[in-house]
Amino acid sequence: MIAPSILSADFSRLGDEIRGVADAGAEVIHVDVMDGHFVPNITIGPLVVKAVRAVTDLPVDVHLMISDPDRYLKEFADAGADWITVHVEACTHLHRTLRCIRDLGKKAGAVLNPATSLSTLDYVLEEVDLVMLMSVNPGFGGQSFIESSLEKTRELRRRLDAVNPEAGIEIDGGVSPQTIGRIAEAGANIFVAGSAIYGHSDYRAVIARLKELAGF
Ligand code: DX5
Ligand code: ZN
């Protein structure tokens, strides 16, 4: 699945920017929520998620880069998120948080920063619908892909296959025509792309190219 990140969209024309990628073959809309505390940037909250929800039938993938995400899970669920992903670095009670997301009727995802070990997921691998690996340090679009994410993806696929083979692997950061082939080959199946899509003048062409290079 290709998941354009609206972080790189033109926010003065957000509705058009979402319809534009949906019409061009996107399968998920990725929304980056940043609080200026967990990450050094501030973006958007439930109000914008609600606006995104109103203009598309695609799944809305809410990436919470916020401290203490438990406080806001219900608000984002009510705003129309379909998937809610939380950073393991921000969750004191990760197991409880993942259960809470599922209890709200949403798909639950755990996210790891580039420096965070896969072992942090050892006891929650069956509690997730997907795991997202950050392949840049979170906070900004347009950064370079961190190569060690490839081996991490391969190892994560092995671990999930053993206990939860249905779970997806989403990669976020530096996904582009230059990197997506290797990321797909490593075992990821959901690809977030911000600048590679919204920085391109022809959304249809770039999404088709990304899908072709990913092998689907
Ligand atoms: C970074 C965000 C990403 C970002 C990716 O903190 O989580 O979703 O939009 O941007 P690109 O695809 O430009 O690396
Ligand atoms: Zn993201």
What do these coordinates show?
The chain contains eight helices and eight strands, in the order βαβαβαβαββαβαβαα. Helix 2 links the parallel strand 2 and strand 3. It is globular, with a radius of gyration of 16 Å. The relative contact order is 0.16. The model has no long low-confidence stretch (mean pLDDT 98). The site of zinc ion has 6 residues, from strand 2. D-xylitol-5-phosphate binds next to strand 2, strand 8 and helix 7. Its cofactor is Co(2+); Mn(2+); Zn(2+); a divalent metal cation. One of its GO terms (molecular function) is D-ribulose-phosphate 3-epimerase activity. Keywords: Carbohydrate metabolism, Cobalt, Isomerase, Manganese, Metal-binding, Zinc. Catalyzes the reversible epimerization of D-ribulose 5-phosphate to D-xylulose 5-phosphate.
**Average pLDDT over all residues:** 98
End-to-end distance, in Å? 9 Å
Bound molecules: D-xylitol-5-phosphate, zinc ion
Number of helices: 8
- What kind of oligomer do you see? single chain
Strand content: 15-25%
Please state the overall shape, judged from the principal axes of the Cα atoms.
Answer: globular
Order of strands in the sheet with most strands = 1-8-7-6-5-4-3-2
Q: What is the rounded Rg?
A: 16 Å
Largest β-sheet summary: 8 strands, parallel
Total number of β-strand segments? 8
Give the structural class. Answer: alpha/beta
Uncertain residue segments: none
Describe, in short, the structure shown:
The protein is built from eight helices and eight strands, in the order E-H-E-H-E-H-E-H-E-E-H-E-H-E-H-H. It is an alpha/beta fold.
